[in-house]
Every structure is written in C-alpha cells, then in structure tokens.
Amino acid sequence: MENGYAIVTFDSDCYGLGLLKGASPKVIWLRFRI
Prior knowledge:
Layout lengths: L11 H10 L13
C-alpha cells in the first residue's frame, strides 16, 4: 500500500459514501452475515 494504512469497516454507510463521492480503486468491501 502506498500510504501504509487501510480502513476496515462493517458499516454499509462507508460503501454508500464511496459510491457518492467516488471511492478509491483499491477498496474491498467484506460483508458477513452472522
């Protein structure tokens, strides 16, 4: 990774915000059903 950090979240709002404002091409969204 270029900056040396990653954002990991279980919040679907982060995914929606990425769609609205344009997410980085290296975003991976993991969705688990418990």
